[in-house]
Amino acid sequence: MKNQKSIWNKEYKANITKWHKETVSLPEISKNSLVLELGVGNGKTLKAILKQKPKEVVAIDFSIQAIEISKSNKIFKSVKFIKSDVKSLPFKNNHFDTVVCYYILNNMTKKDRQIAVNEIYRVLKPKGNLIFEDFAVGDFRQKDTQKTVETNTIQNKKGIICHFFKKTEIVLLFHNFSKIKITLKTTHPITHKPTLKRKIIQARLIK
């Protein structure tokens, strides 16, 4: 299996001018929150986080290219960027009020997803919030398969791992959390191809 870090470094370097969309699905975050964003990428979700004016934001990514792209954006000058892997977070226990996890767990195998979720749980304060969004089973990208890695987990032509979640799977993955609200959504991403369906799964969880 190809090294995911090197693949993503190459992707961010090649597509630096292409990804400009801002996340529009982010739920409300308390203005007093210390927020951690996992997998900052080029900052499209980070923009939405900062608009809510939380107390402080830390953003991590295992891709140095992603970190450099985001750090170069002047609107992110208040953010603390750290090159780190979600499977081994460099923070103390019970540290963050909110963790934002958008489209990061899908790029892992089942074993690594559980390690990552355990780390998220560890760094969240008691009663802290996890805001989660990712691909759901049936998304049009699921057909872009070079090979199947695990159940509902593919490796596409670029070598990127991508998992597609079921609702029942989310409940099991985040079973340590005290409360969970899950929403499934379907949209049509390309207007001239109405048969394509974008399927996403969203969750708001409380430790």
Number of helices: 5
> What is the residue-averaged pLDDT?
89
Detail the poorly predicted runs: none
The proportion of residues forming helix, as a percent range, comes to 10-25%
Give the CA-based shape.
globular
Query: What profile does the largest beta sheet have?
Result: 7 strands, mixed
Please report the total strand number as a whole number. 10
Radius of gyration: 16 Å
Query: Roughly what fraction of the amino acids lie in strands?
Result: 25-35%
Structural class of the secondary elements?
alpha/beta
Q: Roughly how many Å apart are the termini?
A: 34 Å
Q: What is the H-and-E element order?
A: HEHEHEEHEEEEHEE
Order of adjacent strands in the largest pleated sheet: 3-2-1-4-5-10-9
Question: Can you tag this structure with a few keywords?
Answer:
seven-stranded mixed beta sheet, alpha/beta, 207 residues, 5 helices, three-stranded antiparallel beta sheet
Explain what this protein looks like in three dimensions.
This protein has 207 residues and is of the alpha/beta class. 23% of the residues lie in helices and 30% in strands. The protein has 5 helices and 10 strands; from the N terminus they run αβαβαββαββββαββ. The strands form 2 sheets. It has a 7-stranded mixed β-sheet, sandwiched between helices. The longest helix has 14 residues, at 110-123. The radius of gyration is 16 Å and the shape is globular. The mean pLDDT is 89.
